Amino acid sequence: MNTLDAIFKPKSIAIIGATTRKGSIGREIIHNLFSFEFNGMIFPVNPRYEYIHSTKAYPTVLSIPDPVDLAVIVVPKEHVLMAAEDCGRKGVKGMVIISAGFKEVGGEGEEREEQLIEIAKKYGIRMVGPNCMGVIAATPDVTMNATFSPSTPRRGNLAFMTQSGALGVAIILAAHKLNLGFSYFASVGNKADVSAVDLLEYWENDEHTGVIGLYLESFDDPTRFTELSKRISKHKPIVAVKSGTSAAGARAASSHTGSLAGLEVAADAVLRQCGVIRVGSIGDLINMVAGFGRSPLPKGDRVGILTNAGGPAIMAADAIESHGLNIAELSTETRERLEAILPPEASVHNPVDMISGAASKEYAEALEIMLSDPGVDLAIPIFVPPLMIEPLGVVRQITAIARQYEKPVLAVLMAEEKYYDMIPREIENAVPYYRFPESAAMVAAALVRHKIWSEKPAGKVQTFDVDRETAVAVLEKKHKSGGGYLSPDDVYTVLRAYGFPLCRHAVVSLGQDIKEAAEKVGYPLVLKIDGESIVHKSDIGGVEVGIEDEEDLCEARQRIEANVSSAGMFQQATGYFVQEMARPGREIILGVMQDPKFGPLLMFGMGGKYFQTLACEHACHAGKDASAQTIFHSGQKFNRLSLFPIGSPDGGCSCSEMMETAESLRRFDRIAMG
Amino acid sequence: MNTLDAIFKPKSIAIIGATTRKGSIGREIIHNLFSFEFNGMIFPVNPRYEYIHSTKAYPTVLSIPDPVDLAVIVVPKEHVLMAAEDCGRKGVKGMVIISAGFKEVGGEGEEREEQLIEIAKKYGIRMVGPNCMGVIAATPDVTMNATFSPSTPRRGNLAFMTQSGALGVAIILAAHKLNLGFSYFASVGNKADVSAVDLLEYWENDEHTGVIGLYLESFDDPTRFTELSKRISKHKPIVAVKSGTSAAGARAASSHTGSLAGLEVAADAVLRQCGVIRVGSIGDLINMVAGFGRSPLPKGDRVGILTNAGGPAIMAADAIESHGLNIAELSTETRERLEAILPPEASVHNPVDMISGAASKEYAEALEIMLSDPGVDLAIPIFVPPLMIEPLGVVRQITAIARQYEKPVLAVLMAEEKYYDMIPREIENAVPYYRFPESAAMVAAALVRHKIWSEKPAGKVQTFDVDRETAVAVLEKKHKSGGGYLSPDDVYTVLRAYGFPLCRHAVVSLGQDIKEAAEKVGYPLVLKIDGESIVHKSDIGGVEVGIEDEEDLCEARQRIEANVSSAGMFQQATGYFVQEMARPGREIILGVMQDPKFGPLLMFGMGGKYFQTLACEHACHAGKDASAQTIFHSGQKFNRLSLFPIGSPDGGCSCSEMMETAESLRRFDRIAMG
Q: CA nearest A147 in B: which residue?
């Protein structure tokens, strides 16, 4: 038995702080439990009442004669600890703490939360909250609405976790309208005990849960989240809204790699590489979950569009193409079969326009023909109800045909409001339906991407032999002496310790003989100004390349000296850096960091002077979705700028996604440090 | 008097083809006219009835004793021409042809449409349709619903034009829910006469129209559309969905510039430069129009967020930042004033979280304080109704306070469905409200961008002295000889004719002495293989740069010969192209084309080998919105890849937007052709 069963599968529930005043949380929760017909016993607890909601009330949980599995606590914050202590003594195994006034208010609230955690630990009680809106179970085994949501949830296969109670309410409301049902729902509040990862684990093999939805503000335990979600999403889709990544704090990080990783792009990379379907809004979340919860995954990306009106079909085709999917080419046989059943004015090329006379019979026949074409992987039937044709019949027929094929069918229904209320009541398990073609196209694209991801092999983990001690020694020494930029020599030492092939080089202080060093390195070579505070050397004319001989070298040195002096930086110079001239090649950037919010990350992309500005550009101008997907180009091949979360946080390269990077690096002969 | 007044301001309407059968178009239109209480006389025309809708019916329009301004024709297609002829003889000045079976079905339908146009011209009748869903006027002067829409439109300040009847229905339905009212509505169908540009012109100075909405599938007259929309959008916002740009046809164009211009990016460029607010979906259109129709434009981009729940505020802040707007920093005074009225647990930093106890009083006071802060340009109050707090009161207070300030207030209401129906009935002129924070943020961003655009000076038109005759002669000669790529000499002639500064150069055929040409051009120089069919020279090693002397030249020539031979292309070579070595600089690409769908376009961006692949990349991977905004980088400064529509299609540079480009070009000393 899972310890979370005490929360989600209780046989009896005590509502500590139940009341009778309509509109108060203590009344709405007990009312919701009764009206959703909890399949167990409900015990109101409140010393001021004899009975509540026609049910005998008890002064404390200890005075209840029967066993209590779950306690829902809605008393004022001052009484919560006492109530929890009572629960422990009573042998209660789960608590949902609705009451606010804990960590979220700081100060003594934080202390109170610590004490609450202590009590829960002492008695081995699992706890949701505090400061949450409650939990729901709506499986064949358990019907429990222990929330104060004003709208009644439907039963379905979505398990949903939210870090925001308010958004939880909004989601239950929006889900209702789109015929979206829940298996479980949990508002986790301050997450003093139960968090997103616990719930992911709990729902992983739950037979009633087909799709998992998350509203995340933070990854509490990025390593465990990554591990779990990667495993689960291979067989059960996870759709998430991740918010809060734009906070001013994230932008404060100042180094190049730091500022990138702190941004949106890191959250995107983590979620994408774990197969989590990320969406940008609650509306998209609902649309996505409706699609993933009620559709098989498509075998390919060829979309068939069926419509009774031109405009919406064009918009669907535009959206399909803009998401990178293909408009299916229908076979001759399919077109002939369509011709046989449709009026001559109809278009039997995809998008198939049946014109406005098409009713449920035509939708059924044409959809059947379309889905039986092996060149169609997914269908979007669009219906704009003309006068005289009843929308419910059309949706019913589309649903009936869709059930016969293992292909996703995402309907677009642009109808009067009342039909959106009627469908859930009248048609059992209707296909997912959307108000606008763009929503269906967005979901179609996500289904295709998820199919590709779900079939992607997990990859092999490779560990490289590296000399960590040498690298650590260099870094620690620098750290002890106050930090700052590493000298070129130190950088080369670190890189060499990690097995990177390097260019020949020498560092020459200002007074030293540069020619001798040059002879040792060998011509042709590169001369760079050196100085800890001179970071962007080429910007101030501090770099000369292609130096062929001693004469060149003298001239180059003079030019650099003149340039750096006229930039007012020569006083900061400590010497020159002489480097073997690298053969023409690809400049790349590679960065590794330990991000407090996302765990270990690796960055790889097009480097050199392009990097910095492109990356900033990127961060400033790109929208959320674009940021992690933009592809940089260098020469003939593409390098995707990626952030890879690294599997094990204690060092070493042990994550399969890094293999591609590592392989790319191996193609380079030498590394010329910038 | 405008000729379109016959359509939108008739004193009497004949419904030719009116019937009594519920659900038929002929009945629904007359029913809608009566129930929307048309302020004029309605004459049903149908020889089979004595009366229709309790009103005397006439056998033909000619038998009506009174004058008829507008005829709505719903008879079967075979009878339309006769009905139109009757209208002409009767002196009718406007027709709305609902009937289908014209150009859209091809063949004899096309012929029928030609004849219809002839009749309209002969009698000077303005005509909407055929194959449309009708027109609406809902101003203080005219109340006319001559459509068969199942839902009754509200009165408001949105004038809407749609090329798709089905989407017109969907828009009226969706608008209803968001409290969005119309001044005019026109479904233009086949646009045999009245098109988008006619309507833009008609609505430009209409006092009842505050915002114009368009669903476009094509620009019928790009030059006039550009001119008009540019002028109108300076004082009246135009929001448009432009669809159909992804059609396979657009992709067929093969040359670099051609393929780019045929794409999405061209539609985006045209609309953006005309100040038209482009959206990607009907849902966004409705959201945008609600915002633009009921808000002033903001003075800046600093957004204040007010909430009673953390989650939605975080999502709003994320979205605000991802659109490039700023989260306003509240003044000390503002924060102190907020502290004075809010509970200690509230956060008085932006986003201001009033926590869940906030009711209409707190919303009113806090919003007033926020809007009075000169550092706040625009406010997004978010309300997730907790138990016990009535949403209508909150929206009413927000509306009352918003009216006192010339700042946009975009509310987010995450409430039960019933409230969305109640607000339009209960609160007059409520502030725009949205279901999710992301929608409000999107509209906020559009308002800010539109403000910036509306204040952008129109720019000066500059004409350059060019030698068109010489250029035309070169092109015509090439054209007559079968087309293909121009030779380097021809290209230089054309460029010189347009006044571009050029590098010294010489063309040497295979047998000729290359050294002599090199001496003439002068060292250092560049040697390139030449041949009409060798387009991507550097890809096959056909370019050598930095040739310092004769010895270098010989070696370079040998290397090129070897490279091109091993690429199997040497047989296609006709000679060498010797060019002065250009100083290091910026490579740009410049293209001009006459696009059949968008008119004259100019493309400008980062050139060289980067261009081609980036541009393809761009076209393939970028989403709709991103495509025209991606900024390419070269060196230290940014070059925006832009498509500029050129004002006058008959040549010459006469568009103000080109000035920036022209100025950029002047910064280059020489042009080295790639």
A: B387
Looking at residue B142, what is its pLDDT?
95
Which of B25, B167, B539 lies closest to A311 in CB terms? B167
Helix (H, G, I), strand (E, B) or coil at B355: coil
pLDDT digits (tens, 9 = 90+) for B188-203: 999 999 999 999 999 9
Q: What is the DSSP letter of A301?
A: S
pLDDT of B265 higher than 70: no
How many C-beta atoms lie closer than 10 Å to residue B659's C-beta? 15
Q: What angle do CA B669, B671, B673 make, to 5 degrees?
A: 165
pLDDT at B246 over 60: no
Distance from CA of A485 to the nearest CA of B (A): 24
pLDDT mean over A640-662: 37
**Taking CB atoms and an 8 Å limit, are A166 and B310 in contact across chains?**
yes
Mutate to test the interface with B, among A133, A147, A162, A246 (most CBs of B within 10 A): A246
Determine the pLDDT at residue B221.
Answer: 79
Report the range out of B24-33, B221-230, B266-275 with the highest average pLDDT. Answer: B24-33
ipTM: 0.73
Question: What are the contacts of A422-430 at 24+ separation with CB within 8 A?
Answer: A422/A392, A423/A179, A423/A392, A423/A395, A424/A154, A424/A176, A424/A179, A426/A392, A426/A396, A427/A392, A427/A395, A427/A396, A427/A399, A429/A294, A429/A399, A430/A179, A430/A395, A430/A396, A430/A399
Q: Do B102 and B192 form a contact (C-beta atoms < 8 A)?
A: yes
User: Contact A378/A448 with Cβ under 8 angstroms?
Assistant: yes
Angle at B547 between CA B542 and CA B552, to 5 degrees: 90
DSSP H helix total and E strand total for chain A: 24, 29
Contact A311/B264, CB-based, under 8 Å?
A: no
B138 DSSP β-pair partners:
B143
- Give the tokens for residue B338: 């907020």
Q: Which of A309-318, A583-592, A623-632, B437-446 has the lowest mean pLDDT?
A: A623-632
Q: In whole numbers, what is the pLDDT of chain B averaged over residues?
A: 82
Digit-coded pLDDT (tens) for A76-87: 999 999 999 999
Interface with chain B: mutation pick from A631, A640, A641, highest number of B CBs within 10 Å: A631
Determine contact, residues A440/A450, Cβ cutoff 8 Å: no
| The residue to which tokens 């050199």 are assigned | A608
Rg, Å, chain A Cα set: 31
Length in residues, chain B: 674
Residue A420 confidence (pLDDT) above 80: yes
Q: pTM for the whole thing?
A: 0.77
Residue of B nearest to A438 (CA): B281
Report the alpha-carbon distance of residue B96 to residue B7 in Å, rounded.
Answer: 7
Count the alpha carbons within 13 Å of B138 in the hemisphere toward its beta carbon.
26
Burial of A667 (0-12, 13-18, 19+ CB in 10 A): exposed
pLDDT band at A248 (very low <50, low <70, confident <90, very high): very low
- Residue A179 predicted with pLDDT over 90: no
**Rounded CA gap, B327 and B310, in Å?**
15
The residues near B593 (Cβ < 8 Å, ≥ 6 apart) are B257, B258, B261, B600, B601, B603
Q: Which helix (H) or strand (E) holds B306?
A: strand B302-307
Provide Rg for chain B, Cα atoms: 31
B640 has which bridge partners?
B631
Q: Do A217 and B311 touch (CB under 8 A)?
A: yes
Query: Can you list the alpha helix ranges (DSSP code H) found in B12-93?
Result: 25-35, 80-90
Helix (H, G, I), strand (E, B) or coil at A96: strand
- pLDDT at residue number A610: 45
Q: Rounded to an integer, what distance in angstroms lies between the CA atom of residue A539 and that of residue A560?
A: 11
Q: In whole angstroms, how far apart are CA A178 and each of A285, A296, A430?
A: 12, 18, 10
Nearest by CB to residue B169, choosing from A327, A384, A613, is A384
